[in-house]
Write a structure and sequence with these properties.
The protein has eleven helices and 19 strands. It is of the alpha/beta class and 368 residues long.
Length: 368
């Protein structure tokens, strides 16, 4: 792949990423990287390959069976936990690939055990206990039925852990209650004779706020790429930058409209640059309603209007030309920096990873 073939690229500084991971490993009992949604848009297989360079990382987490299968096809042999709901017609492929299923509904263990017996291989599972998010998972009172299924499944099903997810990472009282429910569920399973070798509930934000909930492992996604947007502690450094290019520059008069429909009416004579990406590339259209920033020529410029494949910015007084880079977040090559967390906050996003996850396949991924 040549980046010059693309109108924009997401640059991932792998040295910074590795240093972020090293720092996290020093702070948590065990790290389970969450690389769902194409590793938050950074690239599933390349990021998994980097993470597998750490012997301490024994489990990777994804959301869909398809993501786990992509890792297996790429030669990734670590435990891969599929955290989301596994559809019945996906279970055979999951068992065959040696992926770990999140058991989240009655009857699932029975289905997996039958497939494992049919294929002549054990199926690995982790028990998903619903403690308050009410997305997927078994409530504590449903575990009696699960225990009966596990007894019947015998050695065809291997339990590698149990987990849950906090519904409000910043709410200590709520987290404490949900944490207690999870531990009660684990105790119920253990009292029935089942070993739970790995217990995990904390995500990036929860572990940053309340380390007392870290248990045996912490699942981290955003935390590997950028600091906490509300309480940054300097542990990690942003490692991604999204850059495009100027495709056109024109002088426009006061009163002219920029963009479709009513557009943006210029209040003064201006120099307007057209940039080579739009909402079809994943650029958040809400940024244009709040005069979102973009770095051009070493300066912050204002985004004015967005189309599917192009957008416009005010570059009045900026020394720039067609072919120059425009940076929507990250570093700009001139020492400038625009935090993805800051940009996300302008449009109500709670984490900058929402920006990277939205980037389409026509944004090249570049690993430095």
């Amino acid at each position: 792949m040549s980046v010059s073939e693309y109108n924009s690229y997401l640059s991932v500084d792998t040295a910074i990423l590795r240093e972020n991971v090293r720092r996290i490993l020093e702070k948590v009992p065990q790290l389970i990287p969450v690389i769902k949604d194409d590793a938050y848009g950074l690239g599933l297989v390349p990021i998994a390959g980097i993470l597998c360079g750490f012997e301490e990382i024994r489990t990777l987490a994804v959301a869909h069976v398809s993501e786990g299968l992509a890792l297996r096809r790429a030669g990734i042999d670590r435990e891969v936990l599929v955290m989301g709901g596994v559809l019945p017609f996906q279970e055979a492929a999951l068992v065959e690939a040696g992926l770990t299923a999140a058991v989240s509904r009655p009857g699932m263990v029975t289905e997996l055990a039958a497939l494992a017996r049919e294929q002549g291989r054990r199926c690995r599972v982790q028990i998903k206990i619903d403690t308050g998010l009410h997305r997927i998972g078994l409530a504590v009172e449903e575990l009696d039925g699960l225990i009966r299924e596990l007894d019947t499944a015998g050695d065809w099903v291997e339990i590698t852990g149990a987990f849950s997810h906090f519904s409000a990472a910043e709410d200590l009282a709520r987290d404490t209650e949900e944490y207690g429910l999870f531990l009660a569920g684990v105790r119920k399973l253990e009292s029935a004779g089942f070993s739970i070798p790995l217990r995990h509930m904390a995500c990036s934000a929860t572990s940053e706020y309340w380390q007392q909930f870290d248990l045996d492992a912490v699942r981290c996604g955003r935390r590997m790429y950028m600091d906490n947007p509300i309480r940054p502690d300097g542990t990690v450094t942003e490692c991604v930058s999204w850059r495009s290019y100027i495709t056109h520059i024109a002088h426009r008069r006061a009163g002219e409209r920029i963009g479709y429909g009513s557009g943006r009416i210029l209040l003064r004579d201006s120099v307007i640059a057209t940039l080579g990406v739009g909402y079809g590339d994943g650029l958040n259209q809400a940024l244009f309603a709040v005069d979102g920033p973009v770095l051009i020529g070493g300066q912050r410029c204002t985004l004015l209007s967005c189309c599917m494949d192009q957008c416009m910015a005010d570059v009045t007084g900026v020394d720039c030309a067609v072919g120059d880079e425009a940076t929507f977040f990250g570093t700009d090559g001139r020492g400038g920096f625009l935090s993805a967390q800051e940009v996300a906050s302008l449009v109500g996003g709670d984490e900058g990873c929402g920006l990277t996850s939205a980037l389409s396949p026509r944004v090249a991924r570049l690993y430095i």
